[in-house]
Amino acid sequence: MDALQRKVQALFCGSTREQTRSTIVLGKARVQRKQAPHPIPQGLENEICPITGLCNDARPAISVTVRDLGQVRKDIHAVMYDSSHDDGSFAPLLIRFAWHLCGTYDKESRTGGSNGATMRFEAEANDPENAGFEKAKALLKPIHERYPWMSLADLWILAGYVAIEAAGGPRIPFAYGRKDFSREEAVAIHGQSGCPFGDGKFNPHGSRLPAADLGPDESVPISAPMCQREAPTIQAMRSTFLRMGLNDRETVALILLGHQFGRCHQEVSGYEGPWWAKDPTTWNSGGFGFLSCAAGYDWEYEENPCLSAQPINPAKRWPNLAPANRLQGSSWTEAVRPHPTLARGKRQYDDTARGRHIMLLISDMCLTWDPEYRQHLHRYNQDRGAFSLDAVAAWKKLTELGCDGLLVEESTLQK
Fold first, then answer.
1. Domain of residue 115, CATH code
2. Which of the chain's termini has less CB crowding within 10 Å, N or C?
3. How many CA atoms are closer than 13 Å to the CA of 341, on its beta-carbon side?
4. What 3-state DSSP class applies to 100?
């Protein structure tokens, strides 16, 4: 168990108050300056970086005031619920928003990630993978105006933390200190667009974020195992997470964390439906949800799922006609065109049995098709406590990528 996992485990063992106190020294936190978490602009190699205030050479430690973010958290909670939005909560949107802000990190170039709030700039904001986030920005704008000392980069990520808590998940200590890059600062790092967009190697749009579906490998026989047939998406997903510095266990934990919440919208992403029918606004690590749906079938041994594809009417009730470990004849079918709700060319898996409609994306299915991913999936299905611990540790790691040497733990005591 690494240090981050031990820290997260403390959240579930009642020692968080002591842990939080340990970050406070007379109202100040001492943060050691070290090498900047991104390339320093040319000509400033031996100077203080204008973007982060960090430098290459050793400097004395500096003091940063530790803030209590309790009221900021309360204000985010106050705007979390709206009966006119989807299932009545903005929590799924804010979790996805924070996830996408961080998912652009590249450990080799040390660029991207949440530091800089570069989704304010056009290139990243218009990334097709980021469709629908203007609503999240608008929701949080008044809160930022109320607390102008807090960067948007910090507020946007904190909103994801609060959303997890509001959904019934654990309260996760937040560390702040991210900056909002000016256009000039962002261009010095990312080039003319100012964004970590356009150089993604594993997404046809050039996005650094993972694609939901890259289509099957047509050179592979249709009767081949799905781990071979759907290798393009599997390989791209693994390569994307490895680029961020995340292993297979962390990948599975993060996908399960994010995809237990919310739903897809045809007019936004081209996909349609929730991942969980009971309540897609609730942390459901102990109940029926995406985790149970995915782990309930041994998809790897399904000879030819595409033969069972047929148009699905989400409002129609489909009987469960087969054992749960089979796709053909069961309530799960692969939805392809023609389809009543999906955009052209989109594929997803639908289950409309028992009077409800739930869906899985092709990227979700990769967790069942790939042998390494599937091991973690099955483990989490059998041990939901392990999922909770790993998911929180992976979330904390994800949201702090690219922020080395910048962050200070909030002083808000756990309640």
1. 1.10.520.10
2. C
3. 19
4. helix
* The two structure tokens encoding residue 157: 């990520």
Residue 317 has pLDDT above 60, yes or no: no
Residue 349: what are its φ and ψ, rounded to 5°? -105, 135
**Residue 216 preceded by cis peptide, ω within 30:** no
What is the rounded CA–CA span in Å between residue 180 and residue 24?
25
Q: Residue for token digits 């946007």?
A: 156
Specify whether 87 is located in the same domain as 193: yes
In this structure, how many other beta carbons lie within 10 angstroms of the beta carbon of residue 2?
9
pLDDT over threshold 70, residue 376: yes
In a domain, residue 210? The reply is: no
Contact criterion met (CB below 8 Å) for 409 and 20: yes
The number of folded domains in the chain is: 2
CA 6 to chain centre: 22
Task: Residue 366: give its domain's CATH number.
Answer: 1.10.420.10
- β 348-351/332-335 pair status: antiparallel
Domain that residue 330 falls in = 226-388
Same structural domain for residues 152 and 254? Answer: no
For 345, counting Cβ atoms within 10 Å of its Cβ (0-12 exposed, 13-18 middle, 19+ buried), the class is exposed
Distance of alpha carbon 6 from alpha carbon 304, whole angstroms: 43
Q: Do 395 and 172 touch, CB atoms closer than 8 A?
A: yes
Token readout for 220 is: 């592979």
Residue 37, Cα to own-chain centre: how many angstroms? 21
pLDDT tens, position by position, 352-367? 766 677 788 889 889 8
Same-domain check for residues 88 and 64:
yes
Annotated active-site positions, please? 100, 275
CA-CA distances (angstroms) from residue 61 to 38, 114, 153, 167, 402? 20, 24, 24, 38, 20
Find where tokens 């594809």 sit.
309
| The predicted structure's pLDDT at residue 226 | 84
Query: Model-level pTM?
Result: 0.78
